[in-house]
Design brief:
It comes from Ornithinibacillus caprae. Keywords: Membrane, Transmembrane, Transmembrane helix. The protein has helices at residues 2-8, 19-22, 29-38, 40-43, 52-81, 88-115, 122-132, 134-148, 154-177, 182-202. With 203 residues, it is mostly helical. The chain is globular and about 55 Å long. The protein starts with a helix and ends with a helix.
């Protein structure tokens, strides 16, 4: 009986990971960027990977780049045509409008996902959406020196960045909120655009 009991009962109880360990990223930020670019499908899963801090960094980086893009564009006009710079806030307001619109978007994502029976939190959406903002940020960063050098197609590169922003919104909506519903995912994209334009108009 003792031998049978010893065979049935596990010698070492199973240890469950704590919530704190789950929230800690297991790779560096640079590795996160590389992995996301090389294999975005590995990031865009239903499981949180603890990369929400990296996602938040990407969102902030995107907003900063939008502001820098506006400031640099205006500075180039001032230098080339000897015009006044004007009010600095006017060139920061675009980035602020995107920041507020993205914050609202993430909250709406969480609300509708929870309403549809999913347990995704804000950290989850910061991780996934922030990961997708790597590509738009790269395009903006590339367009800045091209604009300074007066290379005509810099505007194409810049436009691509915002095209990929809206593609990112559609993907997150389609994969995690609308769940394979193209119509609903499209409504999220349109809603974000209208919210951004309204906030920008108010500012």
């Amino acid at each position: 009986m003792e031998n049978k009991d010893s065979e049935i009962m596990p010698q070492n109880p199973v240890q469950h990971d704590s919530g704190e360990d789950k929230d800690k990223p297991d790779i560096s930020y640079i590795d996160f960027l590389i992995q996301t670019i090389k294999n975005p499908d590995g990031i865009l899963t239903n499981e949180p990977k603890g990369y929400h801090t990296y996602g938040m960094i990407n969102i902030i980086a995107f907003i900063v780049l939008v502001m820098v893009n506006s400031l640099v564009g205006r500075l180039i006009v001032v230098v080339r045509y000897n015009s006044d710079f004007g009010n600095v806030f006017n060139y920061l307001s675009r980035g602020i409008a995107y920041l507020v619109a993205i914050a609202i978007l993430l909250a709406v994502f969480k609300h509708f996902a929870n309403k549809n029976g999913h347990t995704f939190d804000l950290n989850f959406f910061m991780e996934k959406f922030g990961a997708l903002l790597i590509v738009p940020s790269i395009f903006i960063a590339v367009s800045l020196p091209l604009d300074a050098l007066d290379i005509t197609f810099h505007s194409w590169i810049n436009s691509l960045s915002f095209t990929f922003l809206y593609i990112s919104i559609f993907l997150i909506s389609y994969l995690f909120v609308a769940r394979n519903n193209i119509q609903t995912a499209s409504i999220f994209v349109i809603g974000f655009y209208l919210a951004y334009r309204l906030i920008y108009y108010i500012l």
